[in-house]
Structure formats: C-alpha cells, structure tokens
Amino acid sequence: xxxxxxxxxxxxxxxxxxxxxxxxxxxxxxxxxxxxxxxxxxxxxxxxxxxxxxxxxxxxxxxxxxxxxxxxxxxxxxxxxxxxxxxxxxxxxxxxxxxxxxxxxxxxxxxxxxxxxxxxxxxxxxxxxxxxxxxxxxxxxxxxxxxxxxxxxxxxxxxxxxxxxxxxxxxxxxxxxxxxxxxxxxxxxxxxxxxxxxxxxxxxxxxxxxxxxxxxxxxxxxxxxxxxxxxx
Length: 232
Fold this sequence. Notes:
The chain is globular. By secondary structure, the protein is of the alpha/beta class. Strands 1-8-7-6-5-4-3-2 form an 8-stranded parallel β-sheet. It is built from 8 helices and 8 strands. The longest helix is centred in the C-terminal third of the chain and has 19 residues, at about 155-170. It has one domain: Aldolase class I (TIM Barrel, Alpha-Beta Barrel). β4 (about 90), α4 (about 100-110) and β5 form a beta-alpha-beta unit.
C-alpha cells in the first residue's frame, strides 16, 4: 500500500488582504489541509492570528483546519479554537504545565490533538501520551517566522519519530500523522518523505510564488510537490 501524503499550505505566508480567496484557490489546486499558525509574541517572538480568523475562514472550505498553537499558556485558548472550527489542534510541550491534560482538553472539545517539537526539543514527551496523539509535528526551523531554511538535522529526528509511531501503530492499530513544518519545497520534499513524514506544511514555497489573480496559480506548485512525492 502506498502511503497517503498530505500537503498543508501555511496561511502565514498567504496574502491576508484576500485571505478567503487564497484559501479557496489553494484548496482548489489540490492541497489537503489548511495549516493555521498562531503566535502570541510571548512563546515565540511574533504575533499572528486568533480564533476570529479561524471562524471567518471555516465556512469557506471543508478542508481540515490544522491549528498550530505557538502560545503559552495554551489551555485557555484551546476551547476558543475548537468553537471556531479547528479540526486538529497542536501545541508545544513547553506551552503546557500539564501535557496530558492539555491533550485531553483538545479531545474533549471534539478535535484531534497533537504535540509540536522544536528542533532542540527531545521526542521523549511523546512516549507517555501516545494514546492521546493524532498528530506529531516536527519543526524543521525555529518557530516564529515564515520563509526560513530547512534544518537538515530534522531528517534524523523524523526517522526517530517515525519509528516510535510505527511501533505504536503496530501494537494498537491506531494511526498517528507525522507532519513537518519549515522550509519544505520541491527540492527537499521527497527526501523529507523518505525520512518518514506523511504531512507537509508548505508556506513560502506555495504562497511565495509570483502573486497573480489567476485562481489556478497554485496548481503548478501543488502538482510539482505531488510529483516529487510520487518518486518516494
């Protein structure tokens, strides 16, 4: 069985003056998931978007909205994003005083839950909460800004995370998605997939293409990413 790969455009790199159109166009081009980056200027040195924006885009698409919370503390804001239409909510272990409880809170709100690992954060946090994880997200850049270069060490960490997930799936039959975020493009996506990722956040690789009004402008890039994945 060939693995199913998912492409998740990060709207952090989209044109916010016409965000609704950007989302409609990129999903029409064959992307699978909307990756929604939330930064609080506290846990990371940047400030982005909140639940109101999530609520505004929810009616525009049936695609999964994958909310990545780069905030601290995290628990207060989880229910707001669940109500705003998030399907998956992920957070950083450093953003929670009690990881198990934060994951349970996400699940109680009817969303899928995940943990996010910065380049220097060890994967050990996964080990005792596998039963509550639907997604593991590895950062291949230090979070805070779009447009950064892929950190090559992330490939080794991906292999380690893949091994943990595969062992767990073999034991339980339950699937956990493995997502990568940061510097993903057509030149490296196949190598990243070989290391074990199945879900790929692409920000500037997609939205950084020349801005035009053509609704099909993302078709070529999504197709190119898929063509690279087909080689894996």
